[in-house]
Amino acid sequence: MSRAPATVWLLLGSQEPLQNWFAQRELPCLVVGSCAPGVELPSVDADFRAACRHAGALLRRRGHREIVLIRPEGEFGGDRESEAGLREALGERPEARLRVLRHRGDPEQLAELLGRLLDAPRPPTACVVARAVHTLTVMMVLLRRGVRIPEDMAVIARDDEMFLRHTVPAVTRYTASPVRLARSVFNAARQLAAKERVPGTVRVMPQWIRGDSV
């Protein structure tokens, strides 16, 4: 007699408290995103660590020494992995410095925080921006202040959205195939529902899109 499939919960981009709640109760659960530190649940996400390691190596080869990661506040696993990937890339060059700018997500605060960095004695010459919509805000702030892209500031978007394909200059960015991500989520959820095995950590490598912003 075949077993009835289990109900599988999908957690979309959730943070640590909700992930821990499911982990402690050992419910069939798949995180669509990355797990918080200390949470052991199966998950499917883009490989932000590898993408940002690539971005850091690219910026290092272009001679950048002052680099900033611009990311939202909160402990989202993908943002943590992004920072780790950049530190791995820059760790080979002790003269390179990575700063992390955390913001609430509203454009006014992001513009204010970025302005402070630009006015610092050693302003950044390159930035990696988590979330495509915040990349747009960053570029508008830079252009308003007369900062040329990429001559004065290189900009790399960790994520992709359709509107980034219409910017001038074209944004250098990474894009994870929606088809591959959806297929990975489906396969992992099917395995959990069928009680075949725990799928573990699945990462989809994003594709690098060459632009004119670096």
Structure explained in plain terms:
With 214 residues, this protein is α/β, with parallel strands linked by helices. The chain is built from six helices and ten strands; from the N terminus they run E-H-E-E-H-E-H-E-H-E-H-E-E-H-E-E. The strands form two sheets. A six-stranded mixed beta sheet has the order 5-4-6-7-8-10, sandwiched between helices. The longest helix is centred in the C-terminal third of the chain and has 16 residues. It starts with 8 loop residues before the first strand and ends in a 5-residue tail after the last strand. The model has no long low-confidence stretch (mean pLDDT 92).
Please tally the β strands and state the result: 10
Low-confidence stretches: none
Shape: elongated
Overall helicity: 25-40%
Main sheet makeup: 6 strands, mixed
Number of helices in the DSSP assignment: 6
Distance N to C terminus: 60 Å
- What percentage of amino acids are in beta strands? 15-25%
Structural class: alpha/beta
